[in-house]
């Protein structure tokens, strides 16, 4: 069996098959200030000092959680369902969305899809255990554990890992009010995730930059139709202009783990930095600081390419 095929088989990556059909980001084409509050920057962003980020983190966390709680408690249609006062898992999400905003786990795809999948899995497992009401009444904690375990695997398989999603799956079996909600819990989770992400875009982008990427920092759309100019001719530099600066800043998870695997499969034993790809051999021992330097070089390379367009 071919080595590269075996590597792909043993390291299944949904994005490898999905990304070619995902449309490329068009955030750069939005008018100001919309694109600014969607995370696009025309220049490299420099994070503010920690003493500035701390009060911003406090204010945005307070705003996000209060918004969700307010909608759940005072929105007539939702309040009639008697949801929890505040879904506990969103407290953990707030730490990621408003504090460690550059983490791969804090990006919109991970937050919204991760929570949604966890809710679906959690409710599904809970419903299965409830087929035996006596067992569920005495061992709902087993259902909660199974739901969390299954949600963790599903998030891993879909590249949507968001740790608070585990709590979402647990609540579907462990919290009485959530158990009574049943499948209604899923759209409530999606709504709360969307509200939290909206607040993150509004508050984080006042002084910081969020998100790093909306879907993935990897290239997308290779199987879709090519972009054309108004005269019908393809613009050869369209790809470079479509990928926002936030997408060009590779996160440690993507730039290191995935690229290392590709480099090993191809027998590459050298560092390769391209505008949209980075390959590193395993065993090189790249630290987070060194990775940041490589990402800066990749960013400058992208800027040079755009400048010569």
TrEMBL record:
Q: Where are the transmembrane segments?
A: 51-72, 78-98, 110-129, 181-203
Q: Which UniProt keywords apply?
A: Membrane, Transmembrane, Transmembrane helix
User: Which residue stretches belong to region Disordered?
Assistant: 226-256
Any keyword Protein transport? no
Q: Where is the composition biased (Basic and acidic residues)?
A: 226-252
Q: Name one Pfam family in it.
A: TM_HPP
HPP transmembrane region domain boundaries: 49-211
Q: Please state what the protein is called.
A: HPP transmembrane region domain-containing protein
Q: What is the lineage of its organism?
A: Eukaryota, Fungi, Dikarya, Ascomycota, Pezizomycotina
